[in-house]
């Protein structure tokens, strides 16, 4: 049994009075938990994003909706927090420029402020001694609003002052060193919890969600998908990167640095063993396929230039332009005169937009020396496992989907994944075929 742990509860785990009561049960039966990290109430961050985008005329209705969601929870749990809820809604109402990235982050942070307030009030009402900690004082980031980068040195330093005893705090948000609220990108609460686990030297990170662990594929898409009892960090990292919604991809970094195992558990069935992500690498000589993931919203950018022929520095130029525009590239393949790369529009940050549509200057800059073709409506499928570079695996995988068009394949850079970019309309069928033949009921 771990001596101390950090527990993160996602949006669905704080969405209903019943879910919040479950948190109370979990804390009373698992006394290793030292810090509780919460997401905003499920759906609230989306409403806040909508609020920031909406015209003045529809704002009042959205604010009312946000207020009602929290009022209802407080009422059902009999908590005297109405005043604080009204204050948060007033803060939202008072924001003058809802289009500025800094103000958007401030608006989004109200979701986690409210959920942590409500959960703390509930836990206190149940006789638990829980301190509410404003994470802004501890999690220090740069000022890249929407997807701020954590300043680990400053954060570690601040965390030496983190209160002892059971605490509750907000996920997803942080602050610049001069006190302006930032967000870590959508789904960032997992990452916040992992950073806390690292900085506070915890033995285990518990991610409580609405499913009892990690599945071989999303069971809503592949009904025969099954639970994976154990995964390596490498496999989990590939899964998170390739779209398994269960964990924010950045979560594992702090856990790998701190050698902290992660357990993914269900808030609603907390006694089930869940999935453990272990620090120990599996040294398999035989390939093992653990899961298949699917990630929508992919852009394929093909950059072609005859100047690339026998030239050097072409890739460096492209990547420095992308880096300057803070665009992260996922997959890349090259030929003599072209480069194809994928960009995940959903990962651009809390304010996700297609960077090639919103940023004409970026396109112009690339088009100065190359032909640029952008394809949308693509989905990335990834086969995740161990020792996948062993002969036969790639042939087998592509053989299963040989009658379907494939736009790009990435294989060989990692032992743990094979990724295939396909058209979104064919993705589900292809994933079902792959799952059935590679993972079936018993796996390979
Ligand atoms: N509330 C934030 C979001 O919806 C962060 C999180 O849930 O992890 O993206
Ligand atoms: Mg999440």
Give structural notes.
The protein has 14 helices and 17 strands. The protein has 444 residues and is of the alpha/beta class. The chain folds into two domains: 206 residues, Carbamate kinase (3-Layer(aba) Sandwich), CATH 3.40.1160.10; 151 residues, VC0802-like (2-Layer Sandwich). The strands form three sheets. It has an eight-stranded mixed beta sheet with strand order 3-5-2-1-8-10-11-9, with helices on both faces. Strand 1, helix 1 and strand 2 form a beta-alpha-beta unit. Helix 2 packs antiparallel against helix 5. It is globular and about 65 Å long. The model has no long low-confidence stretch (mean pLDDT 92). Aspartic acid (ASP) binds next to loops.
Short description:
This protein is of the alpha/beta class and 444 residues long. 37% of the residues lie in helices and 22% in strands. It has two domains: 5-210, Acetylglutamate kinase-like (Carbamate kinase, 3-Layer(aba) Sandwich), CATH 3.40.1160; 288-438, VC0802-like, CATH 3.30.2130.10.
Question: Could you estimate the helical fraction of the residues in percent?
Answer: 25-40%
User: Quick one: overall form?
Assistant: globular
**Would you identify the CATH architecture of the largest domain?**
3-Layer(aba) Sandwich
Work out the strand percent. Answer: 15-25%
Instruction: Report the span from N to C terminus.
Output: 32 Å
CATH superfamily of the largest domain: Acetylglutamate kinase-like
Regions with little confidence, pLDDT below 50 for 5+ residues: none
Class from helix and strand fractions: alpha/beta
What is the number of independent domains? 2
């Amino acid at each position: 049994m771990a001596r101390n742990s950090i527990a993160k509860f996602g949006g669905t785990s704080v969405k209903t009075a019943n879910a919040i009561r479950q948190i109370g049960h979990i804390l009373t039966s698992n006394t290793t938990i030292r810090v509780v990290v919460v997401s905003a109430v499920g759906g609230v961050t989306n409403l806040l994003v909508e609020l920031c985008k909406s015209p003045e005329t529809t704002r009042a209705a959205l604010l009312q909706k946000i207020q009602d969601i929290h009022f209802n929870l407080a009422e059902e749990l009999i908590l005297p927090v109405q005043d604080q809820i009204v204050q948060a809604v007033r803060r939202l109402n008072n924001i003058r420029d809802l289009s500025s990235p800094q103000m958007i982050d401030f608006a989004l942070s109200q979701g986690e402020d409210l959920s942590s307030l409500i959960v703390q009030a509930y836990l206190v009402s149940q006789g638990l001694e829980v301190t509410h900690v404003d994470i802004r004082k501890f999690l220090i980031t740069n000022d890249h609003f929407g997807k701020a980068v954590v300043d680990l040195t400053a954060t570690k330093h601040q965390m030496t002052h983190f209160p002892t005893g059971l605490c509750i705090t907000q996920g997803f948000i942080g602050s610049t060193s001069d006190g302006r609220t930032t967000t870590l990108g959508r789904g960032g609460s997992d990452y916040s919890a992992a950073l806390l686990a690292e900085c506070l030297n915890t033995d285990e990170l518990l991610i409580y969600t609405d499913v009892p662990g990690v599945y071989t594929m999303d069971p809503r898409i592949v009904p025969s998908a099954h639970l994976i009892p154990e995964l390596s960090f490498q496999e989990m990292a590939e899964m998170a990167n390739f779209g398994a919604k269960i964990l924010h991809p950045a979560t594992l970094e702090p856990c790998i640095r701190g050698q902290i195992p992660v357990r993914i558990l269900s808030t609603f069935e907390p006694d089930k063993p869940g999935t453990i992500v272990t620090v120990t690498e599996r040294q398999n000589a035989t390939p093992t396929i653990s899961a298949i993931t699917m990630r929508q919203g992919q852009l394929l950018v093909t950059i072609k230039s005859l100047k690339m022929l026998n030239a050097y520095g072409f890739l460096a130029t492209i990547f420095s332009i992308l880096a300057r525009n803070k665009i992260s590239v996922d997959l890349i393949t090259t030929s003599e005169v072209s480069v194809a790369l994928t960009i995940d529009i959903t990962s651009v940050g809390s304010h996700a937009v297609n960077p090639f549509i919103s940023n004409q200057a970026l396109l112009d800059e690339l088009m100065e020396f190359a032909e640029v073709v952008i394809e949308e409506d693509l989905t990335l499928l990834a086969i995740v496992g161990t020792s996948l570079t062993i002969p036969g695996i790639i042939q087998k995988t592509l053989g299963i989907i040989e009658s379907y068009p494939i736009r790009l394949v990435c294989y060989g850079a990692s032992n743990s994944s094979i990724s295939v970019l396909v058209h979104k309309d064919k993705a589900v069928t292809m994933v079902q075929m792959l799952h059935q033949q590679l993972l079936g009921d018993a796996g390979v």
